[in-house]
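Give me the fold.
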Amino acid sequence: MKVTASLIALFAVLNTVSAAPPSGGGNNGHGNGNGNGNGNGNGNGNGNGNGNGNGNGHGHGKGPMVNSKALRGLIKEKALMAKAQTLQDFAALSGTPITRVIGSPGHNATVNWYYDTIKKLDDYYSVYIQPFPVVTANGNLTVNDALIESATMSFTGAGHPVAELVPVANVACEAADFPDEVSGKIALLSRGTCTFGSKALLAKAAGAVGVVVYNNEDGVVQGTLGEEGDYPPTVGISKAQGLEFLATIAAGNAQTADLVIEQKTVTTYNVIAETLAGNHDNVIHLGGHSDSVTAGPGINDNGSGGIGILEVALHLTKFKINNAVRFSWWAAEEEGLLGAHAYVNAQPQSELDKIKLYLNFDMIASPNYVYAIYDGDGSTFNVTGPAGSAQAEHLFIDYFRDIEKVESVPSDFDGRSDYGPFLDAGVACGGLFTGAEGLKTAEEAIKFGGEAGVAYDINYHAAGDTVANCNRTAFLVNTRAIAHSVAVLAKSTAILEEPLVRRGGYRDFTRAAGVPKKVAGGCGTKAL
C-alpha cells in the first residue's frame, strides 16, 4: 500500500462503509452460513461452532493446531531488530526531525509497510484500512526574542498571541488562582493535580489569551487537553525553564511571550487484519500504535509493540485456530488515542460484544525495562477491568513465572494507551508494558537488573528513541509472551472464564464521579 492520491481516493470509498471487517455469509465469520468458516479444517473448538470450548476440535486454517511452544519458537531476535531498523529508516524519510508522527513521510511509510506486509497473507487474513481525520497543531514559543523548547498540547486552540507572561498561583486548578492581571495576557502555570484541559479552560475564563504550562518534573511536559474544546493556544515547557521565568518576573523583569499555534487537518489510517478462519463471534484482538511523537523515530514507543504483534501475525499463518484473531495498528495514539477511539466509535455494540479480549502492546523494549502486566484483577491499583481482564493478567503472570522464569510487576490501567477506549466500551483488556518516563525502583532493579532511580526509557518521547534504545532481551521475551497468549486463546478462551483465587482489590471497572476520562496518548502523553 502506498499513500498516494489514487489510494487516498480508494480510502475515501472505504470510509463510506462500516469500519467492521467483512463477515461473509455465516453467523461466525467467513463461512457458508453454518458458522464453519472458510479454513481447511472441519471443526470449531468443541464442535458446536462457538470456538470457546475445550479446543479439542479440528479447528480452521492450515497446518497443525496452534500451540504455544511451536509459535513461540518461531520468534527470533534477529527478525525483530531488522524490522526495528526498517521503521528507523522510514523515520529518516521525514527529514529533520527524524520522526514517524502522523502525517509525516515516516508515518505514511510505516502504515504502507504494515498493510503491505500483512496483505501478502490474504489467504489467511482479511486486511483493511480505516481512514479518519485528525486535527494536528504545531507551534513555537519565543520569550523576549529567545526561542524556548516547548511542546504543543493535543487539542490546543490555534492563534498567535503576543503578551506578557503572568504567573498563576498554586497549580491553577481553581478560578481563584488566576489573578486579574492575567486577562489579555499569557498564563504561566504549573502542571499538577487537575487536568491540562481544566487548567486551559480556567485560564480562558479568566481572560488569558494563551497558556504556558511548566513541568513539575524534569523535561518538557508533553500533554493533551483531553478532548476537543474551545481552548486557548497551549504549550508545555520544562520545569527548569518555568522556574527561570518565575524568578525573572519576581525580580521585576517582564517576560513577553510570542506564542504561535497553527492547525491543520490530516487523514491518517488504522490498519486492521483478521484471520479468515476461526470463530468471529469470539475474537481475540491485539493492538499497538503505529505513530511516534514529533521529536523522534519512536522505535521503542511504539515500534516495538507494532513489530511484536506483526511478528506473531506472520507466524500464526502456519497454524489452525478455533477463534478468530484480529491485529490492529492504531494511528494517532500520541495525539490522544484517536485511532483506537475512531475504531471503537465506529463499531456497533454487537461487534464490540464479539471481542472476547483486547490485548495492548505499547513500549515492550524499554532499555531499563520491567516486565509489567496490566493490572486486570485490580489487586494493586484498585481498578479492575471487565470480566476476563483478571484472567488475562494471570495468563501473562503465569507465563513469565513458569516459562520464561522471570518476575513481573503490575501496571496501572491509567488510560495512557489504546486499551482506554476498549475499557470504556466494556471490553476485557490486558497487555504488556516495559515502562516509560517513570523511575525504576530499587526493588525493581533487584528483580530485573538495570539502574534504580533512572527512567525505564531515558529516551522516551525523544530523538534518542532509536534501534539502539531498544533492549533486545525484553523485546524478544515480550514478543514470545504475545505469541503464547495468541496460541492459548486462539485455541480456546475457556481460561478467560475460569474463576481466580482473589488477591484483593476487586471492583467493577467504573469511573468515579468527577474523575476525568483519561484519553492521554500513550505510553505517557499525559492529561494531567
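The two ends are 38 Å apart (CA to CA).
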